[in-house]
Every structure is written in structure tokens, then in C-alpha cells.
Amino acid sequence: MKLNAKDVLKPTLVLVIICMVVTACLAGTNLLTKGAIAAQNAKEAEESRKVALPVAESFEQSPENEECYVGKKGSDIAGYVFTTEADSYGGKIKVMTGIGADGNVTGVVLLSTSDTPGLGLNAKQESYREQYKQKTPEKGFEVVKGGTAQEGQINAITGATITSKAVTTAVNQAIEEYQKVKGGE
Questions:
Q1: What is the distance between the terminal CA atoms of the chain, rounded to a whole angstrom?
Q2: What pTM does this model have?
Q3: Nearest 10 degrees: CA dihedral of 171, 41, 70, 56?
Q4: Which of 56, 82, 75 is nearest to 181 (CA)?
Q5: Distance CA 30, CA 166 (A)
Q6: Is-contact 42 35, C-beta < 8 A?
Q7: What is the CA radius of gyration of the chain?
Q8: Could you tell me if 55 and 73 are in contact, meaning their C-beta atoms sit under 8 angstroms apart?
Q9: pLDDT tens track of the chain, all 185 residues?
Q10: What is the rounded distance in angstroms from the CA atom of residue 89 to the CA atom of residue 36?
């Protein structure tokens, strides 16, 4: 069987036209929803900051560090919120940590993680995140397995030690950033 140019070009042209129409539709949809998506992301970030630093009434982005927000209560600084990342089992884990003006962790929010559902995702549970709300050690927190965690220690999630260490690493990075901010005042 011999192919001629018409048999090859006609389906090729149809596929090219279909691809161009689909691409135009996707670009148009992206253009129309870009603002709404940005507004939703900003709203979610603001809500997460309020969970991480509940005493703050408003937040201002730090001019020195784009991953830091200054929480204010009236005109007074109530604390800081830092967004940090660490390597975890399923890839990067992104954590938002609130640190009050007294230097104590006020809240931890997991913004994104790709860890195993049912194990690593247990780090999103409030009972795990509550462990960080204590007097913050200067050198940061340490992860321990089993037993009762002492001051400055965090009990690892059973079956998800890597995730526990990643969250703790991210929180410890926030503590380091806080100490830099406080040292610069």
C-alpha cells in the first residue's frame, strides 16, 4: 500500500488544529482564573499565619526576609511567622512556624507535604503539632522515639520518623531565623 501526501497531511493538520484550540482554551482559562487563585492562596496563607501566631491581629511581611511575617497586636510586635522547608520522605515539606515575642513557639502549620498518607501525613494532626508549643530551646528541638519527651524534645510519629525529623528541622530553621531577627533589633 502506497501512502500519498494527502493521507498523511490531512490527519496531521487536524491534530495540529485540535492542539492549538486546546492550548488557547487552557491559556484563556489560566488568564481568567489567575486573580482568583492568587486571592485564594493569599487568604489561605493569612489563615495559616493566624493559626501559627494566634495572638497577632495583623501581619506585615518583613523587608529583610520574604519568608518572615511580623505579627502585630495593635502597634506592638506580638511575634514572627517563618516559612521554612526541609527534606522529608516524600520530598520537600513546607512548614509555617509562629514564634512569640518571648521566643516560644506558638504554633506549627504544615503547608505542604508529599509524605505517606496514614503515616507521614499524621504530622498534620494537632496532637503532634502541639508538642512544639513549649519553651523553645536555644539550640532547637530534638526528635526522640518512644517514651516521654522531655523539655526541648519531640516524640516522633510512629512509623514516620523521617517526617518527624523533617518537621523538626523546619521548625529549628525558623528558630534560627528568629534568633537572627532578634539579634538584629
A1: 82
A2: 0.75
A3: -90
A4: 82
A5: 34
A6: no
A7: 24
A8: yes
A9: 677 888 888 899 999 999 999 999 999 999 999 999 889 988 998 999 999 999 999 999 988 888 899 999 999 999 999 999 988 887 888 899 999 998 899 999 888 777 666 655 566 667 677 888 877 777 788 888 877 777 777 767 766 677 888 888 999 999 989 988 877 65
A10: 32
CB distance 54 to 107 below 8 Å: yes
Q: Which of 177, 117, 182, 174 has its CA nearest to residue 141?
A: 174
In eight-state DSSP terms, residue 137 is P
Going through 5-126 in order, the beta strands assigned E by DSSP cover 58-61, 68-73, 76-88, 91-100, 105-112
What phi and psi, each to the nearest 5 degrees, are found at residue 184? Answer: -85, -10
Q: Using CB atoms within 10 A of its CB, is residue 98 exposed (0-12), middle (13-18) or buried (19+)?
A: buried
